[in-house]
Design a protein that fits this description.
By secondary structure, this protein is mainly alpha-helical. It has five helices and two strands; from the N terminus they run ααβααβα. The chain has one domain. The protein has a two-stranded antiparallel sheet. The chain is elongated.
Length: 116
């Protein structure tokens, strides 16, 4: 039933979301997981793994900004939207797959212990 009043429509939508919160959260998690898998698959050329240590467990993998600048970039595009941004911008160069440990080590210490 289409609403003529946008305020009533938003209120109805808000109430539906509140009543179906668990269902909505499950769908959102599934969607985000698919998006992450798509990005990892692209940058990993079908076999996503950490470029530093070779970790292959997808839950441990993330996207790294080659050469740094990740914090500044995430602040520009919005936190939590990197994977969406990568897809929207046709998977630009300058990104790679790292596991969270290697990514944090490079961020904090400038190099990963695997490369010593």
């Amino acid at each position: 039933m289409p609403y003529k009043d946008k305020v009533k429509q938003r209120e109805s939508h808000r109430r539906w979301h509140f009543r179906n919160r668990e269902k909505v959260l499950i769908k959102q998690r599934e969607y985000r997981k698919k998006i992450k898998e798509r990005v990892l698959s692209h940058y990993g050329k079908g076999n996503p793994k950490c470029e530093c240590c070779g970790e292959q467990i997808k839950e441990f993998l993330c996207i790294d900004h080659i050469g740094g600048g990740g914090t500044k970039h995430r602040n520009q595009i919005g936190k939590g939207y990197l994977y969406f941004w990568l897809i929207k911008n046709n998977f630009p160069e300058g990104f790679r797959i790292l596991c969270y440990n290697c990514n944090q080590a490079i961020s904090l210490y400038g190099k990963c212990p695997h490369k010593q």
